[in-house]
Amino acid sequence: MQNRRPAPFNVVPEDTIGTTWALPEDAIARFGKGEVDHGNVKVSPDGTYFAIGTGMGLWWYDVSSMSPISLWETKRGMVKSIDFSHDGKWIIITSDGIIKMLDVQSGECVTQIEGHNAFAGLACSSNGRWIAIAASNGVVKVLDVQSGACIAQMDRGAHEVQSNDITQLEFSPDGKLLAARADNPEISNDGQVLNPDTEGTQTYVWHPETGEAIVKFAGRNFAFSPDSHLLAGAAADETSNDTNRVDRCVSIWDVTTGERISHFSEHSDWVDVVTFSPCGEFLVSSSSDNSLRVWDIAKGVQKEVYTDFGRAWKQPFYSPEGTLLTAVFGGSGATQTIEIWQVEPREKLQVLEFSVGSIGADWFFRCPQLAIAYVLSSNRSDGKTQTFPTLDEPNFPWPDPKVVWQDDQTLASKRLGRGIVGVGIALWDVKGKRIQETLVADKIIHSFTVLPCGKILGTDLRNETKIWDVSKPDEPVAEFTAPKEPSDWARHEVFAPTGNQIAVGSREGTVYVWNFQNPEEPTRLTGHTDHIWALAFSSDGKQVASGSADETARLWDVEAGKEIAVLPIGEPRIPMALVFSPCGKIIAGGMDDEIRFWCAEQLTTLRTIPQSENSRRTYMLAFSPCGKYLASGTWWQQGMEKMAIRLWEVATGENIHTFWGHNSDVQSLAFSPDGTLLASGGFDGTILLWDVKPFIGSYSKT
Fold first, then answer.
1. Structural domain includes residue 114
2. Do 341 and 387 lie in a common domain?
3. Which residue segment(s) compose the domain that 423 sits in?
4. Spatial separation of the C-alpha atoms in residues 389 and 404, rounded to whole Å
5. Chain-centre distance of CA 487, in angstroms?
6. Could you tell me the sign of the dihedral formed by the alpha carbons of 243, 244, 247, 251, in that order?
7. pLDDT, tens digit, for every residue of 138-185?
8. Rounded to two decimals, what is the model's pTM?
9. Which of 33, 161, 393, 550 is deepest in the core (most CB within 10 A)?
């Protein structure tokens, strides 16, 4: 197969990790490669390169060095699904309802198809004629590559309500069949089950030109045989019903006849992976029961069983020569590992080591084929550990990377750890433009703050809530019990700058304030009648401002536990962002169509700044340290490519400058303590650093 090196777009040679590639004007650095959807990491057919579709664009990496080599599609970003053509000549991507087929070597768009939603995945047939797409409503279609026409829509039977439930979509190696896993959820809405007759997770095999269903069975995690005649998958135990179903069996189907030829039930727990040998005579399966089992397909019997690889998740695979190997995913503490073993004899060949929550580890765990490609490309068999320091760049927890400055050269953000566990706090070296340190990597951090003294507080907001000083993670500052009613718990929270309180807003409209000295008895601020969207403490911690879906903004006396006033907002609108000025005399609020300033003493409106039609939904605000300027960030609306971050002069309401950078909602804003830099965190999964000195540098800080 021809080695097709991707066109090197946006590369900065002296920047080997891509922090400054394709930066927006006025930005000095980008942290994070962008939010990655499940399945958006794909290895090229020759195993030489891999591509990652992210919230900010399409990244290309070299497999052998694990280093970035190109960055495409940054104008809009939000690359949701990707796949390679069988020969590696093209890469197919989807973004904002547009499907593009790009030439790998030139980057040129060969085909563009509009009007089809491939949000849940896409696949290219080996004959290069078709693209299969899974829409957000669960509908699977086959499109003609040349014309873009839909030639078939796959039959899934009756569904009262369709949903985004396709989690695996593949053509057979010969391109003559299309298979998909559909989860068929019940879908509950306010306690009402909308699909009461669901069959649960099913695997379908269709004819791609007609949409005719050839095979359908209760199962998942399927794989085609090399000759495309067989399909194997994890299957349901036929003695169980849907309520306690465990897909612990392995079924093999002859897709030419539609008949099941084998059904193995030796596993005692979920089957995670099935893989055919290159010759097609054997099948290996990996299960949560900690075993690997090899099946003789022709004889319909178990050939071998291996149970000595521990409880870690395993991805078995065959070398081109037919040797059975397995990648064992595990690790402990702040380290994640991938061990590569030759199954017979039991011999460890290699260990790949990553920092917990690093982008590199996440990509390997999302795409086991990447680990396989790396091992085959490195051709190492010495059992030694290899680390990836250049990939120690965090993924950020969905939906946003919150940003808070510790000092003028250190920025703090949350980082995503292993699964949902280990969401620690990353400290970024702004001058060096890289990760400096990770704090409390073994804690689930829901929210955090940096106090004026530099101390960092973090919290795990669950029923049993703990507040930590992250420098002393084993000694909670406070512990308290949150309300147990699901409908009444928090969706928004904020720490007091004084470091002794946290305010939490509920779905029902109540604001709870816990004082760390007496956490057993929270102050309940009642008056709102709907979801709390915005909260802000005054600098002395004595007042809280709140914004609610009931279309009111209120100011509260925390110590008295009483409402001070309902702030005037003109026509009914939801205050989505609230912030006090550093001196505490002004409160700013962001709403759909305006930014409003209130006098915190007189409780009157000082000024309003109407927002233009293409930059409404101002849901994030931040005052500069001097209080003279306000930064505002917009949320995405249909037709927008880049989000606006605007600098306003508070005294006049003048728009001093506008930055354009994030591809989706601006979720977090923070000025550096000296007021020279602005950090923004976006829904696209990146943090951008902006130089504001050219625009407010002529104004002295007071």
1. no
2. yes
3. 399-481
4. 24
5. 25
6. negative
7. 899 999 999 999 999 998 876 666 777 899 999 999 999 999 999 877
8. 0.91
9. 33
